[in-house]
Amino acid sequence: MTQQDDSFDVVIAGGGLAGLCQAVAFGVAGLRVALVDRDRPSDLLAEPFDGRSSAIARGSQQVLQGLGAWPLLGGEAQAIRDIRVSDGRPGRPPAPFFLHYAEADLGEGPMGHIVENRALRRALYRRLEALPGVALLAPASVVAAEAGASASRVTLEDGRRLTARLVVAADGKRSRLRAAAGIRVTEWSYRQVGLVATLAHERPHEGLAHEHFLPAGPFAVLPMVDGPAAEHRSSLVWTEDPAIAPALLALDNAAFGRAMERRFGLSLGRLRPIGGRWSYPLGLLLAERFVAPRLALLGEAAHAIHPIAGQGLNLGLRDVAALAEAVVDTVRLGLEPGDAQALERYQRWRRFDTLLLAGVTDTLTRLFSNDIGPLRLARDLGLAAVNRAKPLKRFFMRHAMGVVGELPRLVRGEAL
Ligand SMILES: Cc1cc2nc3c(=O)[nH]c(=O)nc-3n(C[C@H](O)[C@H](O)[C@H](O)COP(=O)(O)OP(=O)(O)OC[C@H]3O[C@@H](n4cnc5c(N)ncnc54)[C@H](O)[C@@H]3O)c2cc1C
Fold first, then answer.
1. Is the CB–ligand 1 distance for residue 223 below 6 Å?
2. What SS3 class is residue 272?
3. β-pairing, 232-240 with 185-201?
4. Would you say the CB of residue 402 lies under 6 angstroms from ligand 1?
5. In CATH, which of 3.30.9.10, 1.10.8.100, 3.40.390.10, 3.40.50.300 is domain 77-114+193-281?
6. Which residue's CA is the nearest one to ligand 1's atom 11?
7. What is the per-residue pLDDT across 325-383, written as a single tens digit (0 to 9) for each?
8. Are the beta carbons of 16 and 300 closer than 8 angstroms?
9. 58-66 and 312-332 helices cross at what angle (nearest 10)?
10. Superfamily of the domain at 3-74+116-187+284-372+406-412
């Protein structure tokens, strides 16, 4: 980059999945964008970096489709055909499921897909390469952004300076730009960690996702596409007490497999962990504002929620679609990308959806992460009641698919 090309419409700090997607969205709309990430792209794509897979809801699939990234996933997205929710205790056979969401209940195709985060990143990088207006600056860290009357001045750790009409803080939960803008957060820890691993199993999963509630929290087994050696695979998200997690992470593969079977049973046959294991502290975080002059918070810089419903990234992708639409509509009117009214529109649009999902996931986490007899009974009766009430079940399904409410064009499957 030379001194002449240090001026952009938008600088995005943070090239996680939210920041990457936002760069593609603005790039598709013809804006000049700098995407800055402190990690090297090859490190972000390497196996040890992130072992998670994400449940991509229908609305998010439409965003990725609209941005031209979904077709680049090739065969790496596994359709979710059924979801079974059950309650249980380790060491006892899982109770019969209380709630069963089936694709056939809606008749609108798969409820979502499971995709490895690594595969999503790969597809988004490939999409970026085809967008000449987007410069990827990595590794590089944003240390400051100062909003001025006509632009923001962005400083990188290596001393480079950029100017931009709009700065997007997509720099994750501990966002430096959010703190520098004086935006406070509400946050608490669930005193749980999410253990993540990939499982190989003897029997095919048939697109069935399991959410099994144990006293320590949810134990999710999510269907993945078969592995390179044609092994049947699922992604494990195992919520545990942080005091117990290190011992579980240190188990050898055979003992880890037995610990999973004790909790999940043998409905998929014998379970065998493959690849690495990861542990993520779980908590809730909500920024009190999503915007400041010439600044928009995106993804986990604005909100982080418990993965109990697999919705964190889906929220982030709805942010991407809303911010893209608010800014692009403004630019089409001849105004500039950092226009205060466009940012206000983005904030209003995203606030309700975020608060609603944060509230729902927080309640579910508290309700299901315990072994208190009367609460167990109440939640099991509740699940069974939802299972019988077809309209209510369809309502929850459509919410989980991210296709309810006042949706941005990209989420509706329309062009930006
Ligand atoms: C166990 C687990 C399972 C999950 N499962 C699901 C799921 O099934 N479905 C779902 O929708 N969501 C899921 N989520 C949530 C989802 O993973 C996150 O919401 C998502 O990854 C957050 O992406 P992000 O881009 O907002 O933030 P991050 O991934 O944190 O990205 C932030 C980026 O900013 C960079 N950065 C930070 N500071 C700077 C700086 N100063 N300068 C430059 N770069 C910087 C970092 O290097 C990083 O690349 C899960 C989360 C967990 C913990």
1. no
2. strand
3. antiparallel
4. no
5. 3.30.9.10
6. 313
7. 999 999 999 999 999 999 999 999 999 999 998 998 888 888 877 777 777 777 777 77
8. yes
9. 40
10. FAD/NAD(P)-binding domain (3.50.50.60)
